[in-house]
User: Fold this.
Amino acid sequence: MNRQTGNVLVTGVTGLVGARLVPRLIKAGWNCRALVRSGKTIQGDATPVAGDLLDAASLTAAVKDVSAIIHLAAVFRTQDTDLIWKSNLEGTRNLIAAAKVHAPNARFIMASTAHVYNTDNPHPGREDDVVSPQHAYPASKVAAEQELRESGLNWSVLRFPFVYGDGDGHLEMLPKHVIPGKWHPAQRMSIIHHRDIATAIDMALAGTFDERIVNISDDAPMSVYELLQLVGATMDASSAPLENPWYLYADASLARSLGFQPTIRTVYQAAQEKLL
Assistant:
């Protein structure tokens, strides 16, 4: 990451992405504030700031005098759709409102998801596609994106696909979803390593993605059949026709045109370099 200075607020610091991004931000020279609920603790050198995305008044101290906000916090691994919508949309609204009053010139960088693209997309998901997600998590993210785009702040939205690496255990969890869900073995997914989430965030902090929604992924979407092999799991093979071949496949050509180049280009590189 480029050497930077300044105060940056990060939400979602205890999640898979946040826990691995914050140390890289600090190494790059940022003074990281970590939004944490009162009474909670965090590991590492970030400065904890008590606050709750669902308590608008508590966010004032967190956003004051920051030059950037990196909004990673989200709820998705639950059947409670009301909680998903409340956390992902209302929480984002509250953070936007605090930023508009107390940090109006800050860059507001929001993590979103490649799951926003339609199941039956006729091509890899592109940032200008009309989206109509059918599940609460991506639908709430689309709504939160819209709130940010209309906020008047200096914003960027990074849509991440399947995230892996740095010992996060995410790849190892994949068989638990793929096998019971009877996924087609040839279903391909775009993926991204934690190290290159940091690459993309670095570019966003420098202004490269200002006022844009940008897909971020590595250079090689992978079939779930191959991904399961990497973690020592097997699934039934099949040569049956694959419905919705572009689902979970994001077109990252915009990011590449803006200079994004993953340092870990494929999951096989990550495996060879022992970065899984």
Observations:
- The chain has one domain: 7-165+191-218+250-263.
- The chain has a mean pLDDT of 95.
- Residues 1 and 19 are 16 Å apart (CA to CA).
